[in-house]
Amino acid sequence: MKGKTYLEVGADGVAMITINNPPLNLLSVDDCGIFSLNFSVLLSLKDNTEQALRLLLLGFWSIEFVTDILEAARKPFVAAIDGPALGGGLEIALACHARISTSSAVLGLPELRYGILPGLGGTQRLPRLVGLRKALEMILMSKLVNGDNARGMGLVDGISSADLLTTTARHWAKDILAHRRPWTVSLYRTDWLEPLPEAKMMLEHARVKSKKKKAPNLKHPLVCIDVIEEGLVHGPRAALWKESKALHELRQSDTCRSLVYFFFARQRTSKVPGITDMGLIPRKVNTFAVVGGGILGSSIATALILSNYSVILKELDEKALLAGIERVKVNLQDHVKQGKLAEVKLDKILSLCKGVLHYEGFREVDMVIEVWFLQHRF
């Protein structure tokens, strides 16, 4: 059944909890929004772990349940990972005492794509398992890694084939219990962490880089960096409370709502009845014509040439055309100042944009964007 966990005890005495919440096995997805907590999955997981349910306050999931019950259990928990383990699913695995995955498994903390941050301890456990540098790359860039790469960086402890995955995880759990393998509590590991002065320099560099690459209104990457630093300076448990509070606040933000809306909008456009189910093959688009070189038209032309498309920019008269080309040039120079475009590439990129006063060349372009109409309408 979708959205549940199952507890089975094998003949070898090892209990296995299976999470089944397709398609991505996220712990925080429901029909209302991608990051509305799916309590049925978490409560079922808790029920199989502690056999008790009660009303919970903010911060419970990341601290009392994940840290105090799961991670601090007197019996070892081993995560067996096959397929995608993203967001909360991976954060639960991080709190286990070991992780075994298949080579094709996909692991990541992509929460920043949706305007929030990892809220079940991921900001604290991932740096302690793989080091701060790699953790920042995974979290801030929402980078996903396969099982083999995860093994190489210390994110998982072992690789198994899919058919032997659960058997391997069972043996691993028994080995931990028998002290044949280390009993690891991720939250309090320090062996992979860089010295504090070096870590602070890395965090400051990450802040500067985030400010350059992100729009000014995107605050959640900086909030995430602050939470990570809290753990390094004041200890991981204090940071878990800060992480939980930050998650609650970010989920209410306009940025989160907008990014979640964009995610679902993009999902819906990939399945349009009567269109996407007809087996049509999209025509390859290489060249554009943009009619109108005002603020909107020049911005569209800039985005296109930055994506290496050839663009014809049309205006009514020479004065308006020169102004439109100048706007494109200013836009590109802003990219150079922000470090998004190398200055040596400026002229080459600008050469992709050709200004015209008539409709010559329009027959050869693959798509025409009528900006005059858009400006008049909006």
UniProtKB/TrEMBL annotation:
Entry keyword set: Isomerase, Lyase, Multifunctional enzyme
Source taxon at top rank: Eukaryota
Molecular function terms from GO: (3S)-3-hydroxyacyl-CoA dehydrogenase (NAD+) activity; isomerase activity; lyase activity; NAD+ binding
GO biological process: fatty acid beta-oxidation
Record-annotated 3-hydroxyacyl-CoA dehydrogenase NAD binding domain positions: 288-371
Key word Zinc present: no
Annotated Gene Ontology cellular component terms: peroxisome
Keyword NAD: no
InterPro entries: 3-OHacyl-CoA_DH_NAD-bd, ClpP/crotonase-like_dom_sf, Enoyl-CoA_hyd/isom_CS, Enoyl-CoA_hydra/iso, NAD(P)-bd_dom_sf
Protein family (similarity comment): Belongs to the enoyl-CoA hydratase/isomerase family.
Protein name (Swiss-Prot/TrEMBL): 3-hydroxyacyl-CoA dehydrogenase NAD binding domain-containing protein
Organism the protein comes from: Gossypium anomalum
